[in-house]
Amino acid sequence: MQDFADSFSLAGHLLISGDAALAEIVLLSLRVTVSALIISALIGLPIGALLAVARFPGRSVLTVLANSLMGLPPVVVGLTVYMLLSNAGPLGVLQLLYTPSAMIIAQSILITPIIIALTRQVIADLNAEYAETFASLVVPRHVAIAALLWDARYSLMTVLLAGFGRAIAEVGAVMIVGGNINHVTRVMTTAIALETSRGDLALALALGMVLLLIALGVNGALSVLKTADRSMAHA
């Protein structure tokens, strides 16, 4: 029991003192996750909106595929990216394996289907209200999509935050493609797994506390945005 108390005490000290190793791991985690989120947003938001508004052959198949890939196993993504980026793979010449870029690619693949599926649902619900207005005014499709994305911005922020929360908590895929290399690809989740196996509970607990604070912050932001969205809807 004393060991656990000491570990919590040391973890608190690491947080308060701004330990350099802790800060490095946290900053790399945020850099990788935010980069993956930006890439996924640039891909997922327009595709999700297009699936909600447009009517074309194969649309239903793409919608089902996006919904199904929301539960994509992280280790499968990690293995796939590893095979693509390894020296024997088609993208091996890029030398991205065991770098933050490989981790960004893996996280982007994981959260893009989530953003596509949730965006499609948000935009489809909104488009049901505006479809007749757009049709009567003969609004071009790209203009209608842009208008819907802007009008749904608060709800879409919750979609992006959901993607962020999914990515920052990921361990399997980033472990496979990043290798958990100290000062290079060690992020919060992989560091927690490593330090726990080593018995260094202080650093693992400190990282766990930071990860928990980020998760609480994301959930708090989601609640605030949902409240703002409802307020805008009733305004």
Q: Using DSSP, what is the number of strands? A: 0
Order of helices and strands: HHHHHHHHHH
Which percent bin holds the helix content? over 70%
Broad structural category: mainly alpha
- Can you tell me the overall shape? flat
Using only C-alpha atoms, the radius of gyration works out to: 21 Å
State the separation between the terminal residues, measured CA to CA. Answer: 55 Å
Mean pLDDT over all positions: 86
Q: Report the CATH topology name.
A: MetI-like fold
Can you put this structure into words, describing what you see?
There is one protein chain. The chain is mainly α. It has one domain (17-230): MetI-like (MetI-like fold, Orthogonal Bundle). Helices cover 80% and strands 0% of the residues. It is built from ten helices and no strands. The chain has helices at residues 2-17, 20-53, 59-69, 74-85, 100-136, 141-151, 153-168, 172-178, 188-198, 201-234. Helix 1 (2-17) packs across helix 10 (201-234). The protein starts with a helix and ends with a helix. It is found in: Cell membrane. InterPro entries: ABC_perm_TupB-like (IPR049783), MetI-like (IPR000515), MetI-like_sf (IPR035906).
Task: Summarize the topology.
Blueprint (H helix, E strand, L loop, with lengths): L1 H16 L2 H34 L5 H11 L4 H12 L14 H37 L4 H11 L1 H16 L3 H7 L9 H11 L2 H34 L1
Helix pairs in contact: 1-10, 2-5, 2-6, 2-7, 3-5, 4-5, 4-8, 5-6, 5-7, 5-8, 7-10, 9-10
